[in-house]
């Protein structure tokens, strides 16, 4: 029973804590600006990262009494150049394929348009882009792969650990389309974490995914619509190539 409550606390407690903190900051901001929605949308990622930082501070305080503090729970190791190349290739391939999936799903589920509009407004600010592309992925990898997956991996079957953390990661995006493709992304990120044995590997994948999705791919397709075919082929080729190269070491890492 103790293990059950600890698992719930780690897997759901920290994400819910973050949700409550970010929501409070957003509501406070709206109240302070007298419901200025335009200003809110322009600063949405600044408010989010502020909540993320406060969450990490609280998580650090919560973990202080334990033997495993925050920095000990996440693996920060150098990755050799060859492995980094394969990780980047996989990142680009997976990102392109997931972006195509999100495009298909957005046609079926129109509510995803709200997320796209939010990104379009925020993308006009360099600061918001830096936060969305770099800082938020770093926070999410520390919490979802470093803490949640790290705990599940030590206490449960590896397949259960990978799927549960990916499911929580998808649900916490609070949008059906995002939930579907971030669930798949969450699986990839966990596998990369095991392959590289360093949180730097999955942070790289996450940053590349956000960079391509928020900036590069939309910009390319808006100027050169024909690039959709080129990108799809590139995504498939890079995905197959990187998986073939990675799978050998991945099989060894799986049972570490």
From TrEMBL:
Domain CAAX prenyl protease 2/Lysostaphin resistance protein A-like span(s) in chain numbering: 126-212
Stretches that traverse the bilayer: 12-32, 44-64, 84-105, 125-144, 156-174, 180-196, 203-221, 227-247
Signal peptide: none
Keywords noted in UniProt: Hydrolase, Membrane, Protease, Transmembrane, Transmembrane helix
GO function term, MF aspect, one: endopeptidase activity
InterPro entries to which the protein is assigned, alphabetical: CAAX_protease, Rce1/LyrA-like_dom
GO BP terms in the entry: CAAX-box protein maturation; proteolysis
UniProt KW Kinase keyword: no
The protein, known as: CAAX amino terminal protease family protein
Originating organism: Clostridium perfringens
